């Protein structure tokens, strides 16, 4: 046996190491597989745990977001409720005060129409004057409350409601009528024919912008005028229109440095606006905020001692709602010659332009002397409209001179708000219109004066209440009024005018009555039980084939109340306490409207 064979035998006789055996290697492989399994399992569990944590966090975030949204909505709902409650409170205060005052002042006015001795007439006039003073106080308190409240509301979302742009501007000017009269400031406005007046937007916010800017102008204007102008800029999608407004005054103006500072403030964030003594600043900050909210911008231009002009743009939408116009057409009056006398060139030009739009032939002059010279050369004028406060010759003096030349010439007097001196010469005038001038009042008084040219002097010498009135203005009248004392007062007034009206107490009774009988005019209270006047008006406009004239006769006189009545389908608006001359004028106005329509 060889040596190699021996060695092989020796080696082969030793056992194989266990780590090289198949069963050990199998165990190792199984151990590795088990380890990999548990490692993978731990990783999966870790991922699942992490996913669970993320899902819980997501759910918590969603819950927090939902809770935040609920809180935000709850806050909005609470703010809206507070807003409605405040508005309703102011409306209720106004309504509850004005309703009994209607009876009190109405009865006093009726008493004043009877045969009284001098002492009794003095007492009744005192009652009426005190009532008027109380109304002014109420208006001032309510208006101030509304403005103060709207300042706190300036950051809220905008409303989108139909409103009358002309009426909004006229309401703003009415707010400052008394103060401007004391400062001998004329308040005038102009809305060109291409500017839509029935629009959709936030009327209260726009009212607030105008109010703050006019208030700012009055603060720095000692005399002259404050003018509000409107201009159409462009149209966009969804009936959107961009309008520009300017508030121009003849006040003390500002230096270049102050204009630059204020202009810079208007271009910066709201919080940066600082007027540095130009005004209180709060009103202008609110204006900038609201104009920005309406998608526009605001600028200022001014020259020292020459006045200031604030210009702002906003976006509104033209209304698709058909609105019943308060102005009467001038059918049959085309080319009637009107002479306008006013030393304020702006007012004279605007009145001339307005009358020409109504297809009347209007001529304007700046003084009583010019008017008399023109009338002496051309006596073919049908009506004179004159301002009361003019240098050299007042409206009363001019009217007396006109009457000495043309005794039958009707004259309409334009008079500042608080001036009662004309009452000593009331028989001279066809009517007296208080400034600032409302377009529909000017419209109706011109028509009345022209139609009654030959009777003006005779009518002015009569009592306000005469049974002949119903003969000249035949109307079938329905009254909707729930207050018993007001029912009694209105019935008595209409009886003295020669009417026999039908009385109802709520909207349901009105609908039942108009279902069986036709009426020319409905004097509609707004707040009534069962169905209010607004809802009753909407039902009448939807259901009746022959439509009556509906006149709101209401104690609701806050901002927006007039627009709400017009939106509901009413034709006109008389605020309580109802003045006899207002009721007579509105009945005569719509009687003429009916005669035009039928004739």
TrEMBL record:
SUPFAM superfamilies: ATPase domain of HSP90 chaperone/DNA topoisomerase II/histidine kinase, CheY-like, Homodimeric domain of signal transducing histidine kinase. It is an enzyme of class 2 (transferase). The chain crosses the membrane at residues 20-39. Its EC number is 2.7.13.3. Residues 92-318 form the Histidine kinase domain. SMART domains: HATPase_c, HisKA, REC. Residues 337-450, 476-591 form the Response regulatory domain. The modification 4-aspartylphosphate is found at residues 387, 525. Pfam families: HATPase_c (PF02518), HisKA (PF00512), Response_reg (PF00072). PROSITE patterns: HIS_KIN (PS50109), RESPONSE_REGULATORY (PS50110). CDD domains: HisKA, REC, REC_hyHK_CKI1_RcsC-like. It catalyses: ATP + protein L-histidine = ADP + protein N-phospho-L-histidine. InterPro entries: CheY-like_superfamily, HATPase_C_sf, HATPase_dom, His_kinase_dom, HisK_dim/P_dom, HisK_dim/P_sf, Sig_transdc_His_kin-like_C, Sig_transdc_resp-reg_receiver. Keywords: Membrane, Phosphoprotein, Transmembrane, Transmembrane helix, Two-component regulatory system. This is histidine kinase. It comes from Paradesertivirga mongoliensis. The lineage of its organism: Bacteria, Pseudomonadati, Bacteroidota, Sphingobacteriia, Sphingobacteriales.
